[in-house]
Amino acid sequence: MWFFARDPVRDFPFELSPEPPEGSPPGPWTLHRGRKKATGSPVSIFVYDVKPGAEEQTQVAKAAFKRLKTLRHPNILAYIDGLETDRCLHVVTEAVTPLGMYLKARAEAGGLKELELSWGLHQIVKALSFLVNDCSLIHNNVCMAAVFVDRAGEWKLGGLDYMYSAQGNGGGPPHKGIPELEQYDPPELVDSSGRAVREKWSADMWRLGCLIWEVFNGPLPRAAALRNPGKIPKSLVPHYCELVGANPKVRPNPARFLQNCRAPGGFMNNRFVETNLFLEEIQIKEPAEKQKFFQELSKSLDSFPEDFCRHKVLPQLLTAFEFGNAGAVVLTPLFKVGKFLNAEEYQQKIIPVVVKMFSSTDRAMRIRLLQQMEQFIQYLDEPTVNTQIFPHVMHGFLDTNPAIREQTVKSMLLLAPKLNEANLNVELMKHFARLQAKDEQGPIRCNTTVCLGKIGSYLNASTRHRVLTSAFSRATKDPFAPSRVAGVLGFAATHNLYSMNDCAHKILPVLCGLTVDPEKSVRDQAFKAIRSFLSKLESVSEDPSQLAEVEKDVHAASSPGMGGAAASWAGWAVTGVSSLTSKLIRAHPTAAPAETNVPQRPTPEGLPAPAPTPVPATPTTSGQWETQEEDKDTAEDSSAADRWDDEDWGSLEQEAEPVLAQQDDWSTGGQASHAGQTNNPDHRSSELDWSSWEAEGSWEQGWQEPSPPEPPPEGTRLASEYNWGGPEPSDKGDPFAALSVRREAGTQPRRDSWGDDNWEGLETESRQAKAELARKKREERRREMEAKRAEKKAAKGPMKLGTRKLD
């Protein structure tokens, strides 16, 4: 029978890296990088090869194996696994780097900060205090070669090869036999007389002084160099001198040394050391202490090392949220630390926590998430947004807290590109319609309009056609002045999404009404927008072939590329309004537009006069075109809107560009149809009829599509059929043919037989008669107004521009 012996090295659950070993410290061990076979997690493996005739070194290595396996302390190298055979010893520890290599690498990258060095030395002294005071052990090998650094920048004490008991149970200190290590022995060990009186920690504290000198000044050439502190910080020099004093009796205990350095103004008395000490004891801290700590942590993270934030602060933050009920206070430091992670690490560590936070009912956490969404939105995929985040975010639209409603609206700027068809075009639009029509806070209505202007390009073509014009038109009738400005600029931000027919029939009439708005900021923006839209109409009128290029985005599918132009045009919105929103909410608790109506504008002759409406109660209107001194609240609103004037309108006003193809008649809705709707009060456009919007809270009750143009009466000639004095008749189709003004049904067209009459005389007489009639009406109206003003002047005060006072 054959017996096969198994190789324990091959069955060992860890394997050495094929790379050459790292810079191993002096001594019997060789340091290798390795990994765990099952998980691939990195480790460090110390290897000792048993050699014939080196029994003493073998015993030292086995003693170090045993010590490391039994000693457990946060500041001592952490033992994971080990292997002992007749040929070798393997000791597996956490992944570490020798301190000498670590300092050299950091020096090439710019050097270590004093904060990091203070905490590193604090850890080594604390480990020595544990060995001496708690375990009665003498390390006997404190030097640069015995200190290692993990991935979080934590310093660990290793090199336990020559450790012995302070009580003399195991005999005296073992012999080193390595000159590189013996140079750190204190001078009293050379004195063979044994007359020197010393404490059990005296030798290790001398070696600690040598370590401090090497950390700041480099390798120690000889013991005499310790007299010159060199680059050691001034706050540490007095305590350093105590360590390297000739009298071993005065060298302080490690615990006392820590206490001295932690005194006010001491080297280890800083925010970094305090943060680390708190994190080490966070499990036993009171909830109030944890809350205060996390609130102050965010301010300090910028000065902390990146590795420390990733590998020490982040796990504690995740644990505090998961098990410690830390709440919203962990969000700010959590997202700040998240900046140091790559995309894969962010998905694994941060995103699961964020998704869980959105389901929380804690208002403080919800508003913090909404405010800081910009920091993590790029890591969220569309299925996660639509199924796990957006359903919870929607509750914010219905929240009774205005701040949460406002932040929910603003968050849609970031969520909209990731929303699916149903959530974006149906659910979100329902909430926006309700907020814009019924929300009691003017700034929230304003931000809703702003947000819609920014995300308009992401809507599909049918939703854009149904929503944008109606929504911005409604905003222009809001009693809150910044909302009216936002409506005007919303038209400008989405100018490429409207057909020429909509520009002429729907948008320009609304904008023209704003030219007599009580607020100058609204009037200024309205004039700018009118000039830009007229410029587009004029350019197409001059060259109808530009129509295809101008309207290329009207029926285009939603795309992120289209959002770039709108976002740049709507840059006025978030900064201008958001910075003042909280102040405006406190200063202007504006009533909902359903309760407060806007000033009624005069009705042209021949149209039925609308029912009189109440004068708005808000004190944000001025009675004259000239700029006058207003109260403090009105001045704040005006300044907020005036800041939007700095945006670049030039690109829209210079919209005319060369285009490709020519289209025929681009006017689908005739003037007769539009006029018919205007004359009939039952078929008014949604620009005047908002009751259905406010009742239903839906975008569906918006514009009624104009009916097809009626055929012209027989014999009517269009403007394009006449020769207006040009050298030859024009054979190019007139793009305004379908927009020509239709005559009333009972009016007969003029005949050519009137051509020989004196048209100039008739026109002159007609103008004179009309002028006389108009003058008489003005005189009568002036007398009536003066009489009424004299009666009501004391009670009513001066009239406001654009308003009507009730009898």
TrEMBL record:
Species this chain originates from: Ceratotherium simum simum (Southern white rhinoceros)
Domain of life: Eukaryota
Pro residues composition bias: residue spans: 18-28, 601-617
SUPFAM superfamilies associated with the record: ARM repeat, Protein kinase-like (PK-like)
Family per record: Belongs to the protein kinase superfamily.
Region (Disordered), start-end ranges: 14-36, 590-646, 662-807
Ranges of Acidic residues composition bias in the record: 627-636
InterPro entries found in the cross-reference section: ARM-like, ARM-type_fold, CIK-Related_Protein, Kinase-like_dom_sf, Prot_kinase_dom
Domain called Protein kinase: residue spans: 14-314
Name of this chain's protein: N-terminal kinase-like protein
Biased composition (Basic and acidic residues): 741-754, 764-774, 781-794
Biased composition annotated in UniProt, kind: Polar residues: 664-680
Job of this protein: Regulates COPI-mediated retrograde protein traffic at the interface between the Golgi apparatus and the endoplasmic reticulum. Involved in the maintenance of the Golgi apparatus morphology.
PROSITE patterns recorded: PROTEIN_KINASE_DOM
Any single Pfam family the record assigns to this protein: Pkinase
Gene name linked to the record: LOC101405445
